[in-house]
Amino acid sequence: MSELPIKIKKTPHSRLSEIDFDHLAFGEQFSDHMLEVRYSEGRWHDPLILPYGQIPMYPAVSTLHYGQAVFEGMKAYQYKGDKVNIFRLDKHYDRFRRSCERVCIPEIAEDVFKEGMKALVEIDRQWVPKEKLKSLYIRPIVFASDQTLGLRASGNYRFYIICSPVGNYYSEGIKPIRLTTMPKYVRAVLGGVGDVKVPGNYAASLQPTTKAQQLGYTQVLWLDAIEHRYVEEVGSMNIFFVIGDVLVTPPLNGSILPGITRKTVLELAKKNGMTVQERPVSMQEVVDFHRKGTLKEIFGAGTAAVISPVGVIHHDNYQITIGSDEMGPVARWFYDNITGIQHGEVEDPDSWCTLL
Ligand code: COI
């Protein structure tokens, strides 16, 4: 049992029976409880688990105006032996702490984040979908709660963790998605906040993504902000190319989000003797490899997206079309192994799983 003083106020009316676990959209339904921790007078107060519901706030609350906020995206899975697994809790906490530091949010203690989350998932463990390839998405969010229009780091904050039972992120399911570059726009710049998980990165992607969707693409493939030539990421996931026998992905250069699934793919690849290159990849190079026939597969990796095959990339009047209507063999290998570890069907030698 945790030593953390968590107060618990359970809901008298569970909504679990209202949920159709056979038809789960991404992030539309929320479990019975949430965790709340408030920061004031220079310290984080005791965590409280309470029924999921509305949170009171004033329109002057500074996060609404200046976006001083950070979030994470994590998942809990049904695991063998009727256990529940929170995947790569340590790595998500590390990224959350780094993101908070970047936008001047006071550090949330590791045990508040980890033990608070474990207590919440334990209380809502019936909300973890039983079926493989579904999961309970966990969304920690912290935001500035001073009432002020002054632009400064807030003196008050609120930290919440909410949970949502989810199926596939993309409407394509695990069928290949279609990407396009939008060289007129950029997602992030070096020295900015592209490598931390702050809401503004996602807001900035909405207009170009909407335009891409109007043109028939699922998402934008972002290019670097200086030369508009080098591949960065997809916003909802990192990107991988299989060129010949080599797995290639752009390096963490400061404007790409260091994805935990990206890290998992790289670690599994190296362990299994694949040749891996983390190096700048220009779109011209991708086009050239495609023309030569050595570009074998493209896929994305992210917590929500898991491993998602990419069937099309449109760039500068050239359309790369790759693979069949199914996941390619390399993407499939990662998909099976990662979901296998998450659900306890494949060994977890590196302690990526936190079992409840
Ligand atoms: C995640 O993969 O957890 C994210 O936060 C991406 C978001 C667009 C759903």
Q: What does this protein look like?
A:
- The structure is a single chain.
- The chain has 356 residues and is an alpha+beta fold.
- It has two domains: 7-167, Aminotransferase class 4, branched-chain amino acid transferase, N-terminal domain (D-amino Acid Aminotransferase, Chain A, domain 1, 2-Layer Sandwich); 177-341, D-amino Acid Aminotransferase, subunit A, domain 2 (D-amino Acid Aminotransferase, Chain A, domain 2).
- Helices cover 24% and strands 27% of the residues.
- It contains seven helices and 18 strands.
- The protein has helices at residues 62-66, 89-102, 110-123, 199-214, 260-271, 283-292, 329-343, and strands spanning 7-8, 33-40, 43-44, 48-51, 69-71, 74-79, 83-87, 135-144, 157-166, 177-180, 219-220, 238-243, 246-249, 275-278, 295-302, 306-315, 318-321, 353-355.
- Strand 15 (295-302) and strand 16 (306-315) form a beta hairpin.
- 41% of the residues are buried.
- The chain binds 2-OXO-4-methylpentanoic acid (COI).
- 2-OXO-4-methylpentanoic acid (COI) is lined by residues 73, 236, 302-304.
DSSP strand tally: 18
Helicity level, as a percent range?
A: 10-25%
Order of helices and strands: EEEEHEEEHHEEEHEEEHEHEEEHE
What's the number of structural domains?
Answer: 2
Largest beta sheet, briefly? 10 strands, mixed
Overall spatial form: globular
Distance between the termini: 11 Å
- Identify the CATH homologous superfamily of the largest domain: D-amino Acid Aminotransferase, subunit A, domain 2
Q: Helical stretch count?
A: 7
Task: Please compute the radius of gyration using only Cα atoms.
Answer: 21 Å
CATH topology description of the largest domain: D-amino Acid Aminotransferase, Chain A, domain 2
Mean pLDDT comes to 96
Q: Provide the CATH architecture of the largest domain.
A: Alpha-Beta Barrel
β-strand percent reads 25-35%
**What is the structural class?**
alpha+beta
Q: Quick one: CATH class of the largest domain?
A: Alpha Beta
Question: What are the bound molecules?
Answer: 2-OXO-4-methylpentanoic acid
